[in-house]
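Re-run with default settings, no changes from the original entry. Doing this only to confirm the output is reproducible before filing.
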Amino acid sequence: EVQLVESGGGLVPPGGSLTLSCTGSGFSFKDDWLYWARQAPGKDLEYVAGANSGLTRNYARFVQRRFTVSRDNDKKMFYLHLNDLKVEDTAMYYCSTNRQTFSPRGQGTQVTVSS
């Protein structure tokens, strides 16, 4: 069974930074693509970024170089580094092994951007 656990969310002011973490088990962590998605209140899940086990990275257009993804396959950790956060980045952030459905995913970690 695939299990994913996100952490690292919090309340930050506009322009602030956070690093979200995701750990996973039940799948071949070092071989699989991993993705971050988010869901703002009243909105659908949306793709944020993805990374393969090598150096390939992919980002949603709205990221605009503010976010970066990284992973440590030995530690089975996947990260989303959030910089220059905006109020509209407020959402629950999830990691997933599936780009199309974002399922399975973890319980999420809340990011709130507010002054």
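The chain is about 0% helix and 45% strand. The chain has a mean pLDDT of 95.
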